Amino acid sequence: MKRIAIVFFIAVLGLALAAPAFALENQFGGYWRTRFINQTDFDGVDNDVSRAGETQFADSRTRLYYTGIINDNLKLVTKFEIDSVWGAATNALSGSGKASQGTIGADAINVEVKNTYLDFNLAGAKFIMGTQPGVIQRGFIFDDDFSGAAVVAGAFTGVYCKNVENDDGSGDDQTTYHAKYKIGLDGLSITPTVTYGDLPAGDYVILLGVDVDGSAGGLSYWGTFIYEDGDLESATEEAFEALLGVPVDVDSADVSAWLIAGGASLALNDALDIHGEAFYATGNDLDDYIDGDEVNIDAFTAGAGQSYYWAEIMGYGLIDNQWSNGSCGNAISNIIAANLGVGYKVSDKLSLGADLWYAKLAEDDANDEDYLGTEVDLSATYIIIDGLKLDVVAAYLFAGDATTNNSDDDADPIELGAQFSVSF
To answer: Rounded CA gap, 133 and 141, in Å?
Structure first.
């Protein structure tokens, strides 16, 4: 796969050099970042006792974009990615286990094809086919890359996503279908959505939702509601069998869950704003989870690709490396969280921010605890030179018992991070 990526990259460059012969218009762009990360006690246990929550490293990421515009109605978009952990012989911190460009010699082969898709207009609609990025309901359902197709026709958007293709005719593939329709009003938009997950062995989930976005003067606001229904009988049986090591017969595993979220930002003047948000995602009531041969799944669970960033320590934040023990991280489920923050633009180059987060579990954990903690996040953004940005964050979590598991050696998680970035 790595060799294919390199050959494809060379082929794209060859097309670019031969552009006059094909009358192509070439567009190049990209993104680069380098992060310095120090995270301590993320497992809620003092680092003199446990090293599980400790992280100190630096890494870099480069993304290169090439778009071949064939004509006004047709273009090919390709995006490459190169990751490296400074000094690492393998990219273990990114979970890849592959050779890292950050090792001595710096000649590892780790170019990835992140996106490659065809974008074309036909019969008044826009079509996108291939491996592409996608967002469903702000990431509460999905925010990731996928292979499939999308169509945008006026206010309507439809998406076909192939999650798993086993190519064996066994019926254990996984496919997601999504549709939305944006209704525009004066200063307000309302977008009903439906997302259907077709899973193996007759399992399925359906998510019905609505997004609201609006603005009035210096106030902007948003809201999201999602109701989830479905049946995960086969998946539940497989999960229990893997856990218990014996066959399990489940009559039904009914899903009934929901999520509600909202936020607002108010610009008090050209320099100062206040903002906040809150969300509630249902969790499993452990006393009612298993009722005889029936399983009641009340936890909001959107599945693979779900990604909504929030607090620095509890919710991934800018330094998206890990989250604190007990939290759902960016896969929002079984949580109640609220935020209040302020942003201040000191100058054209310097902006400051301060945020306070409170979070607890919607349903108690196995230790009958629910309080995750109260988090303070401080941030600064500085434009070093035109195009080069530096973000600095400092975060402290006053950890609750659901984070520390009532450990005798409990400790509050701390994060310090800096990120240099360029977009072009």
So the answer is: 14
Pairing of strands 111-122, 74-85: antiparallel
Given the DSSP bridges, would you call strands 294-297 and 335-345 parallel, antiparallel or unpaired? Answer: unpaired
| CA–CA dist 341, 355 (Å, integer) | 4
Q: How many residues can be counted in the chain?
A: 424
Residues 6+ apart with CB under 8 A from 122: 73
How many whole angstroms separate alpha carbon 60 and alpha carbon 58?
7
Strand partners, 353: 343, 379
Least confident range of 55-59, 130-134, 142-146: 55-59
End-to-end CA distance of the chain: 27
CB 322 within 8 A of CB 307: no
List all residues 6 or more positions away from 256 whose beta carbon is below 8 Å from its beta carbon.
228, 229, 296, 297, 298
Please state, in angstroms and rounded to a whole number, the distance separating the CA atoms of residues 274 and 117: 39
State if pTM tops 0.85.
Answer: yes
* Distance from the Cα of residue 22 to its chain's centroid: 38
Three-state secondary structure call for residue 293: coil
Give the confidence band of 29 by pLDDT, cuts at 50, 70, 90: very high
Our measurement of the distance from residue 163's CA atom to the centroid of its chain's CA atoms, rounded to an integer in Å, reads: 16
Radius of gyration of the chain (CA): 23
